Amino acid sequence: MRLFRAATIVVSLFASACSIGGGPSSVSWERVDRGLPIDAGGVAAADDHPVDLFLTERDVRAAAVASERIYPETASPFRGLATNDPSPVESRLPADPARIQGSTATQPTHERTLFDSADRTDVNPFHYTREAELFGEFFHKGGDWAFVPGIRYYQPFEDEHMRLRVEVPFVATDSLFRSSAAADGKLTETSDNDKFGIGDVSARFDFLPFVDERAKELDRGAASRPASGEGDVGIATEVQVELWVPTAPGHRIGSEKWVLGPAFGLGLFLENGWIVSPRYQHVFSFAGNDDREDIHEGRLEAYFGKKLDDDQWVSVDPAWLPNYEDHQYSGTTIQATYGRVFSRLDNGGVVRGYVKPGIGLGGDRPYGWLLEFGVQIAGF
Questions:
Q1: More confident: 108 or 4
Q2: Is the pLDDT score of 222 beyond 70?
Q3: For the chain, what is the domain count?
């Protein structure tokens, strides 16, 4: 359609020059930028630079008449110029020269972020951004300990409706992660590889099938009274599939099993700024070392998070860990997080960090206490 309009205007200009006698009543010089400027000989120039277009007022008015005849119900690029307005032609030319040229004009871009693009905290688990993270986890239970540093990377796509996360952990431990097979005497030897090395690498796919408008409004801080037909609570849903690969070299720092963990989460965005997200993940092994006990367990957790200001946030994560393989219920964990944005980068990203202490409850708790910390570069 743009090309057709441009062709119509050019034909009109040519016709007016051939059929309308008399010299120009006034002359208008317009400097415009175009992708392929036309030189004095009428040949497209190879470089991109401003060129001078010699237009008479008579030519412009003739083009305006032809344009408005063809597009009577649309916004003609020359609408209003066919009148006898005595003001200079250049004062009545369209503000956007790209509409005259027919070249690519600036188009309004659609919203590319589901949630507040200015929010650089990590309080909203449904806000997918590009992130690179260095983390460390220190576990302790009885006389046993383990330290797990690692790297996480998050890559969103499909306009932040989907995201891929990859985690590469490293494990240093004495005997916290010894398996039931080792306890049964099937695996009794301990080597240096059993105490330190790369852990089981995991990859997770996240997908947001539904996010309502109220959730977006509340995330942006627009906690006004909801419009008619909208609820007071914003809702979002999330589906996840996580895969663990047995990359650890020793049985004490890895499961030696291929493990899959699908999950489903529900997000509730409240008017007081809190985000509540119950979530369930079902974890099971489907291949690997037959001498190791199969994995079949769940994780039912609830996330409560709130942004304190533009740079700080807090959250609490209680979780219940049922063990279906042993037909018993494991313990409970409670973790609390405090996070802060340290600095903002020129490219729009931020450097932020967090600390997350936690405790384990119950006879089969996975740990007595936990301390996790991390530094992230996000939104770059």
A1: 4
A2: no
A3: 2
The conformational region for residue 193 under phi > 0 = left, psi -120 to 50 = alpha, else beta, is alpha
Give the residues across from 29 on adjacent strands: 54
Q: What is the pLDDT of residue 56?
A: 55
Q: What's the pTM value of the predicted model, to 2 decimals?
A: 0.65
Domain CATH number, residue 322: 2.40.160.40
Domain range for 43: 2-101
265, 356: one domain: yes
Contact by Cβ (8 Å): 239, 274:
no
Cβ proximity of 337 and 314 under 8 Å: yes
In a domain, 110, yes or no: no
Tell whether 109 is covered by a domain. Answer: no
Cα–Cα distances in angstroms (integers) from residue 270 to residues 56, 226, 234, 338, in the given order: 62, 12, 7, 20
Q: Answer whether residue 97 is part of any domain.
A: yes
Predicted confidence band of residue 69 (pLDDT cuts 50, 70, 90): low
Do 241 and 346 lie in one domain? The reply is yes
Pairing relation of β-strands 144-157 and 51-56? Answer: unpaired
Average pLDDT of the chain is 75
**Phi/psi of residue 25, nearest 5 degrees:** -75, -30
